[in-house]
Amino acid sequence: MKVTIKKAALGGLAMFGAAVLLAGCAAAPEENGGDEGEARDFLPCMVSDAGGFDDKSFNQLGFEGATRAADELGVELTEVQSDSETDYAPNITSLVDQGCNVIVTVGFALSAATVEAATANPDINFVIIDDAADNDFDGEIDAPNIKPIIFDTAQAAFLAGYAAAAYSKTGVVGTFGGMNFPTVSIFMDGFAQGVEYHNTEKGTAVKVLGWDPAAQDGVFTGGFEANDTARNTAQGLIDQNVDVLLPVGGPIYQSAAAAIREAGREIAMIGVDADFTETDPSVADLMLTSILKGIDVGTYDAVLAAGNDEFDTTPFVGTLENEGVGIAPFHDFESKVPAELQGELDDLKAAIIAGEIEVTSYLAE
């Protein structure tokens, strides 16, 4: 499969050249252990975005993957948490100064700082999660020592949108995000495409609030913090009769969950990046499903490869085909969704992989 980027990216995400992206559709990283018992002079390091390593989402998944690789290599992971965007560059610099051999940066917001540090330190390997590291939009990674780990989550979000439409009793579902970056809006757009496909196939008329596919814009909180703004944003959608809600942006789901519980009626939530039923059992009773990224596997593989002197900067692009993206089981909602739904989702997944159903995104073919 050839992957091309169809629109200019924001916040550091940008177009890959054809040669880069052809390589980007390799199989999902395999879990290969390092040599046992061998002492290594190797220091893996990691810096979070403002969501922190306990965000129950993509920072946490990246941390788990890097930690597992470090454990297998017999070394300690050095990590530093960012509390705001002003911490990004100084935190990366501090890791460079500590002699890190590979530095993993988490999130598109760290793209500019990552590229600057990688350019200034060509002997250090860098891995960036959720960004293409092409800030000048010339179709190439901006430094030869950066490996991007990115995901065509629109494919998985399509399945979640279809499931949301099948589950909805009010005929209204909603979504909102932290900021309108491609790695956020790709969830929202794929979700809306899935709802529309259900409407077309089933003759339903489920509405999607919070995202306008034509305008490629929607409802955003302006940040990724679990705060009153996020809660009020969720409440605004709940007040419009949504009964399925997709919050996209790390910890903002916590505010959405609080608003759902206060609403006093049955509203399902869809998680992003990780299976929230497993990473945050406190919201398990609200979770219809989660849209998954293999962040932990991709990060594990990249750090392990660096520790074994096998670092490869070929971008990893997660898709349904290579199992880099997917959706979680229905868990507590298994008895609440239509009995035929799982079979329909399996068929849809196969059709997307085969190219029979087109799911558009900035990473789409």
Automatic annotation (TrEMBL):
<dbReference type="InterPro" id="IPR008107">
    <property type="entry name" value="Mycoplasma_p48"/>
</dbReference>
<protein>
    <submittedName>
        <fullName>BMP family ABC transporter substrate-binding protein</fullName>
    </submittedName>
</protein>
<dbReference type="InterPro" id="IPR050957">
    <property type="entry name" value="BMP_lipoprotein"/>
</dbReference>
<keyword id="KW-0449">Lipoprotein</keyword>
<dbReference type="InterPro" id="IPR028082">
    <property type="entry name" value="Peripla_BP_I"/>
</dbReference>
<dbReference type="InterPro" id="IPR003760">
    <property type="entry name" value="PnrA-like"/>
</dbReference>
<keyword id="KW-1003">Cell membrane</keyword>
<dbReference type="Pfam" id="PF02608">
    <property type="entry name" value="Bmp"/>
</dbReference>
<dbReference type="GO" id="GO:0005886">
    <property type="term" value="C:plasma membrane"/>
</dbReference>
<keyword id="KW-0472">Membrane</keyword>
<feature type="signal peptide">
    <location>
        <begin position="1"/>
        <end position="23"/>
    </location>
</feature>
<keyword id="KW-0732">Signal</keyword>
<comment type="similarity">
    <text>Belongs to the BMP lipoprotein family.</text>
</comment>
<feature type="domain" description="ABC transporter substrate-binding protein PnrA-like">
    <location>
        <begin position="46"/>
        <end position="359"/>
    </location>
</feature>
